[in-house]
Input
Amino acid sequence: MPWAYWVSRSRPLAPKIFVLINGVLLGHAAALAQSALHGLSRITASEYPDIWGGLIDLESPTIPLDVMKYGQGEDVICISDGIPRTAYLRPLPHERLLPSAPVSLSFFPRGTYLITGSLEALGLETAELLVEQGARRIILV
Output
């Protein structure tokens, strides 16, 4: 991404880069071609955070200058029904962390179970748990 490199070097007033897409985050079928641009923007955001302005998914072809101005600091903005929306992670309430009743797992000895990413500690622990619960055929990938 040489363009991002040169933009990041244009100090002291390096411009912010905003990527505008249409309907990708909303899952529109016509937006498939723009999905690569969505992926490229995620890379740009991680490699050049000082010049990253944001990714804006539009619902109409108008350029949202107000969102670009007031949405500073938001990584991804999806405009839906004319309202700019952002996604946030929030902590899970404590009462939802632990189930009220114990969960019982049952695996069938004749079944086959696939564990991906299984060659590290977590995958091997998961495989051991499945064996303890009755699984006999496990594929580790």
User: Anything to note?
Assistant: Residues 24 and 35 are 6 Å apart (CA to CA). The two ends are 33 Å apart (CA to CA). The domain at 2-85 is CATH 3.40.50.11460 (Rossmann fold). The beta strands are 17-22, 52-58, 76-80, 83-85, 112-115, 137-140.
